[in-house]
Design a protein that fits this description.
Layout: E1 16-17, H1 19-34, H2 49-55, H3 71-87, H4 98-116, H5 123-126, H6 133-153, H7 159-183, E2 185-186, E3 192-193, E4 202-203, E5 209-210, H8 216-231, E6 232-235, E7 240-243, H9 249-265, E8 278-279, E9 296-299, E10 316-321, H10 326-333, E11 358-359, H11 362-378
Antiparallel strand pairs: 1-10, 2-3, 4-5, 6-7, 8-11, 9-10
Helix pairs in contact: 3-4, 3-6, 4-7, 6-7, 6-8, 7-8, 8-9, 8-11, 9-11
Length: about 375
């Protein structure tokens, strides 16, 4: 409640956000403005600007000194609240709080909006710290599947959970499934695999393209998990999992193909078991926040900065404060920001000469693979 991003609030502690975040959620905010809806969203960091002014000198500060919106963080938060309520870890009354209910509802709606709109064409910004699109899909779908299973066992404890169930089921069975099936690649008779970006677009010494597929195991497992979480449910009375009766044959065939590929290659040594489960927010020059429209520039102590021609050589807060009407924002997109025009397109994580740090976990790859193979074997 304290740290939610509220773009329509008058409080500068609540209504300011990283310019990159505003860029990828602006379509969602435009819709809310037109519909006269108030908005409260889960941010990445639990820190206000006022807190940061003090905590910065203790070594605790947000990257670029401003909060942001990461769709994967949002998906994890919705799953955490949902699973905690359904498992009895916390009381359903937590969602009876109107502010918590609003955050839960608005954030779920934003997640669905981003998926339906291809992450606003900028997955490098929308998936701020977790660059895997298919991992994000699974994190959304796992909320859908526990809500599906709970509904089949009885009624959900709160109406808002039914609302979120409908929001997520619509998007995972529609846009998300369509995108996953589109990304599938044939790996031999009856075999299917998925690639992300690690080890791809490399070149040999003779300058020939080289596709290493170093996150192929992880991405294939995640695709299978995402599809199964979208199209199966767990019967708590019998302890068995089942495909929904309306599951398309193409979904079952793709999942079976993923599992076949995983069984053959996971322990073969042919592919690295790597992933990019976490990364820096800047994926090179084009994803730095300074090139995106903003209307708040100040030193950390709150002193406003009037010279916007260059980035100050000091710790500053650069943000979008409040809601910027669509026509005004579009005008801002046609102007330079600190000498550069806003990068409007994303050419892929391997595009360009820049670099960015990412974290990889081999146990994470193997555990998600085990989940995919075992879950497929348990579906009846």
């Amino acid at each position: 409640k304290k740290y939610a991003y509220r773009p329509f609030s008058a409080d500068p502690n609540l209504n300011s956000i990283d310019p990159r975040a505003y860029f990828h959620i602006r379509g969602f905010l435009d819709q809310a403005w037109e519909n006269r809806e108030d908005i409260a969203l889960v941010p990445t960091w639990a820190q206000t600007i006022d807190e940061e002014r003090v905590d910065f000198y203790k070594g605790v500060a947000m990257p670029f000194e401003i909060n942001n919106i990461d769709v994967t963080v949002a998906a994890n938060t919705i799953y955490g609240i949902t699973s905690a309520v359904l498992s009895g870890l916390i009381s359903p009354t937590v969602l009876s709080d109107p502010i918590i209910e609003q955050i839960y509802h608005n954030t779920s709606s934003l997640i669905a909006f981003e998926i339906k709109n291809n992450f606003s064409g900028r997955p490098d910004l929308a998936l701020t710290y977790y660059p895997s699109r298919i991992e994000c899909y699974w994190l959304v779908a796992r909320t859908a599947t526990i809500l599906e299973s709970a509904r089949r066992s009885g009624t959900l404890p709160l109406k808002i959970m039914d609302t979120v169930y409908n929001i997520f089921t619509d998007v995972v069975e529609g846009y998300m499934t369509k995108d996953i099936l589109h990304l599938a690649k044939r790996g031999g008779p009856g075999s299917v695999y998925f690639d992300d970006f690690i080890g791809n677009d490399d070149f040999t010494l003779s300058d020939r393209p080289l596709m290493r597929g170093e996150d192929r195991i992880f991405t294939t497992a995640m695709a299978a998990n995402a599809l199964m979480s979208s199209w199966t449910y767990h019967d708590t009375r019998t302890g068995t999992s089942h495909w929904k009766t309306e599951t398309p044959w193409s979904v079952k065939k793709t999942v079976a193909g993923c599992v076949k590929w995983l069984r053959r290659y996971t322990l073969s040594g042919k592919y690295k078991p790597w992933n990019a489960f976490f990364s820096g927010s800047a994926k090179g020059f084009k994803s730095l926040p300074f090139w995106y429209p903003g209307n708040r520039l100040e030193y950390l102590n709150g002193t406003s900065i009037s010279n916007w021609t260059h980035i100050p050589n000091a710790t500053v807060i650069y943000a979008v404060q409040g809601y910027v009407p669509a026509d005004r924002y579009n005008d801002m997109l046609n102007k330079t920001h600190f000498g550069y025009y806003t990068p409007m397109t994303f050419g892929g994580y391997n595009n360009g000469s820049g670099s960015f740090p990412f974290w990889s976990s081999v146990p994470y790859t193997y555990s998600t693979t085990l989940l995919a193979v075992s879950r497929f074997g348990s579906v009846v």
